[in-house]
Specification:
Signal peptide: 1-15
Order of helices and strands: HEEEEEEEEEEEEE
Protein name: Secreted protein
Structural class: mainly beta
Shape: elongated
Number of strands: 13
Keywords: Signal
CATH architecture of the largest domain: Sandwich
Number of domains: 2
Pfam families: DUF4360 (PF14273)
């Protein structure tokens, strides 16, 4: 009897139309921090809402005898309101940053980024880029690129957005009090690329019932624990 019921339920699920999720979209953005005060940041969201580009006018740090000690590090936090499909998705998120740096001998620049969702702040991905050496003595452009796997591996609230926070910090350190240095972050592009759909569930399903799919959406399989049977 159990096998018959399970087979019937599987047939019903396979025959039902599947509202298959396909991507993460960026609905809106905001920012905060001493490196990106209001009025100093521009942003453009792409037509398909899969990537956003920021421009920064005042995200720069400086160190040296004539520099303000408070300017040796600056931070800017980006807040992205993301709309997920109703379910569980794996995406590849790339964050690309461009800027300019000039460093005297003995000065080191660090660009540190952390990525986390507001409802799961303990699950954080971080990266650090360190710049130093003679190649930056006369000033040089740089590119920092982060690739974060599983950027959207969460069950999103049904009918709600998730908030992705990206905390960027640029900092300068020196072992020579007379040395000078500066670093700026001029722009940032955050992009989401659909990579592989692992599994998803309809919002009105029971807690222990879900339907798993591959990225080709074939061979749907019902995995249900029938506790009452």
């Amino acid at each position: 009897m159990k096998n018959l019921i399970f087979a019937l339920l599987s047939a019903i699920v396979l025959a039902a139309p599947l509202d298959t999720p396909n991507q993460v979209t960026i609905e809106q953005s905001s920012h905060s921090g001493n490196g990106c005060p209001q009025g100093s940041v521009s942003s453009i969201i792409s037509g398909d809402k899969t990537y956003i580009t920021f421009g920064f006018d005042r995200f720069n740090a400086a160190i040296g005898p004539r520099a303000n000690p408070n300017d040796k590090q600056k931070s800017c936090q980006l807040h992205l309101s993301l709309r997920y499909p109703q379910g569980f998705q794996v995406a590849l998120m790339t964050a690309t940053y461009h800027g300019w740096v000039r460093l005297d001998s003995g000065v080191t620049a660090n660009f540190i980024s952390s990525y986390y969702f507001s409802h799961a702040a303990s699950n954080t991905a971080s990266s650090r880029t360190t710049l130093s050496g003679g190649e930056f003595k006369n000033g040089k452009s740089y590119t920092k690129e982060d690739k974060i796997e599983n950027a959207a591996t969460v069950w999103s609230p049904c009918g709600a957005n998730g908030i992705l926070n990206i905390n960027n910090r640029i900092a300068l350190n020196s072992n020579n009090q007379q040395a000078q240095g500066e670093i700026s972050n001029d722009d940032a592009t955050i992009k989401f690329e659909h990579k592989l759909l692992l599994q998803w569930r309809r919002c009105n399903q029971a807690k222990k019932d879900y339907v798993a799919h591959s990225d080709t959406f074939e061979n749907a399989e019902l995995r249900s624990v029938m506790d009452s049977m």
